Amino acid sequence: MEFPEELKYSKEHFWVRVEGERAVIGITDYAQAELGNISSVELPETGDELEQDDSFGSIEARKTVAELYAPLSGTVLEVNHELGNAPEFVNDDPYDAGWLVVLEMADPEELNLLMASDAYEEYVSVADEED
Q: Residue 20, Cα to own-chain centre: how many angstroms?
């Protein structure tokens, strides 16, 4: 399982890659493995305003539908439309081709509420021990 060090992570299993004032967001390798084969992804529209921790779409796997929760507040600048035809990108390449949205961050201070890779790796290992 991968935990890229340059990313920030939420307790809801989203990753954030900061690129200046922009934040690329996706679900973690751990999350895609827990969900199983992704069959569809519902994402917001470009221009939508997201608030941290609010639902912004859903992801469907064979046995479940999971809500997507914004790890940061901001305006949606880009949506990964490729996932409409190839939702398996989330499983195959969650940190590159499987990205979900790009936000213009409303409050970069919210990044301080997210975890570094080592903290997230510990977080998911504790979750696995509890299962």
A: 18
